[in-house]
C-alpha cells in the first residue's frame, strides 16, 4: 500500500489520455521509405498521462486517474497494468465499447525520439471526464486549447493544480492557453514550450514570465537541468541535471513531474524538489519506455548508495552529488513498495506477470 501523504482520499489525481505505447530503442537511424531497420530493444506499456500516474504511484503517492479506455486488447492491457501491477485507482475512468485505444510508437535514435500515433475521436467530450472531482491534495492536468470545467471546480475545492502542455503542432502558441493558468498552482513546461508561449528567447526569461501567472513556475531544460520560481516562498533556483548515459527519454518529463509533486506534498525547499525531480528523470532515461522506466524508492536508494561509495573512494564529483542528495536518507518512506517490477520487452502473459509480481 502507498504511504498516505495527505488528509485527502488521494494524494494525486491525474486526468488525460492514456496511450498504448510501443517503444523501439537502439535504432541506427529512422526508417526510410522502402527500408527496414532493426531495433536492438523494445518495450510496451501504458503511456500518455499513465506515465505520470505510474511514476507517482511508484514513489508512494496514492494516485487516481481519470481517462477513457477502449474495450480492445490495448485497453485491457493498460487497465490491468495500471490497477493490478501499479496500484493506480481508476474509479474515475471509463471503458467504452467499439472505441480503438490510442496507440503510439516511439522510435529512439541517438538519445532523441520520433513518435507515430494513431487515435480516434474521444468517445465522450473531455468535460465529461471526470464526472466528479475527487478529493485529492494535488491534481495534474495536460493543458490543451480548450479549458476544462473541472479545473475551476478543483481549485474551489482546495486542490492544488499542476499542469504541463505539449508542442503546438500548428505553432500558433496561443496566449489563451496561459490564461487557463489562473486556476493552477504550478506549471511545468519544457524550455521550448515555455519560450514559445511567453515569446521569450531564454529559459530564465520564460520562467520569470510564467511566475507572474502561477505561484510556482518550473521550466525543464533537458540536459541543462531545471529552473523554478516559487512566489509563495520567494525561492528562485536552478539545479543542473545529472550526467547519465541516456537510453530512452520517453516520459522523462512525466517522471520529473511526479518527483516534484512528491516534494511539494512533503514541503521540501524548492532546491530539493528540483533536485529530486531531476534524479527521478535521470534514472528513468537509463531504462526503456516511459512508465516502464519510472524509478521506485529501491532504485533511488541503490543510486544513493553507489554515489556515496564512490565519494568514499575519493571521487570529487560523487562527493558533490552525495552532499546534494544526502537529504534523501531522511525522507525515505516508512511503508510502501520499495522495489518495482521491471517489465518484459513485450506484452506479458498473465503467468509471466504473476511469476514476476515480487520484482
List the keywords.
single chain, 359 residues, alpha/beta, UDP-N-acetylmuramoyl-L-alanine:D-glutamate ligase, 2 domains, eight-stranded mixed beta sheet, four-stranded mixed beta sheet, 12 helices, globular, disordered C terminus
Report the biggest beta sheet as strand number plus sense, adding barrel if it closes. 8 strands, mixed
CATH homologous superfamily classification of the largest domain: Ribokinase
Total helical elements? 12
Would you report the number of β strands? 14
Shape: globular
Distance between the termini: 15 Å
CATH topology of the largest domain: UDP-N-acetylmuramoyl-L-alanine:D-glutamate ligase
Proportion of β residues? Answer: 15-25%
Query: How many domain regions?
Result: 2
Low-confidence stretches: 342-346, 350-359
What do these coordinates show?
The protein is an alpha/beta fold and 359 residues long. It has 2 domains: 279 residues, Ribokinase (UDP-N-acetylmuramoyl-L-alanine:D-glutamate ligase), CATH 3.40.1190; 37 residues, no CATH class. The protein has 12 helices and 14 strands. Helix 1 packs across helix 7, helix 7 runs antiparallel to helix 8 and helix 10 crosses helix 11. The longest helix is centred in the C-terminal third of the chain and has 16 residues. The C terminus is likely disordered.
